[in-house]
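Reopening this ticket.

The earlier resolution said the output was attached, but the attachment link was broken on my side. Pasting everything inline this time so it's all in one place.
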Amino acid sequence: MLQHIVITVYQDFELLDATGPASVFASANHALAEDGEPAHYAVHLASPTGGAVPSSSGVVVETKALAKVPRPVDTILVVGAEAGAVTAATRTPELGRWLSRSASSARRLGSVCAGTFVLAAAGLVDGKRVATHWSACEPLAQLYPSLTVDADALYVVDGNVWTSAGVITGIDMALAMVSEDLGRALASRVAKRLVLYARRPGYQSQFSPLLRAQAKADGPFADLLVWAQANLDTALDVSSLAARVGLSERTFYRRFVAAIGETPAQYIENVRLDAARILLSQELPLKEIARRVGLAPTARFAQVFQRRFGVTPRLFRETHTSR
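Inline output:
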């Protein structure tokens, strides 16, 4: 039976919040068709009154009226927007009433980016742990103190409530839904079809070490960071990195700390552990993960990982992949 996915939009919504997850579910159907299987999802873009709805980027989408969405609804996703548009959405009676009526019978209820505000305004996530865009975490926590706002996660699953952080994390969350529904292998095929760099687990930070460093780096360091990320399994000590950018070790160390705000060793360990956390969500042996991130042998990997996160890689994997 088709599972009806209702992606709820409103005036001046963030386009990618809607089209990202929609593309994931459509690609899952495509993968099933390749296997000779029937479609699993029916995706509906819906709005309180239906018709043409403009996004914040100027692209206008055609929507169904919420009252005319086919039932039963399997998954409800409310998209985000800038503060003014989100506030207007929380004050739209038709939207709040439909969400309140439909949430109790839906298998999953979720939001992308600042769509969490809309769920919270409807009283549907009281007492839940939730995610939202990093810039909205503090306002959300202040406005709805019963929520536990996870400012670090890409997406959070609390019971049947799924909430994601900023914009493209809706794709990560939708992939996790496909994995739950149709299996990890098919979700990986969807990710490959969409040319995603990696399937990111929900517990990954909104800010990767590379992204934080790139915001500060310039000159030769910008290229060096990208190269190091792609070569974690090689020697990345000060002498190797300094040689890569043509500086003496002492000069390199001084300039790196000044530019990035941490020592080369600290930075490299951070990116290696960040990569390890992603790989732990996959079915790879610990020995292979340790090799890929440059922390072999496995005993060294376990020691470094436990020192940082307080648990062994094995226990971390068991805890975070229990779904």
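Reporter confirms the inline version is readable. The longest strand covers residues 41-47. The mean pLDDT is 90.
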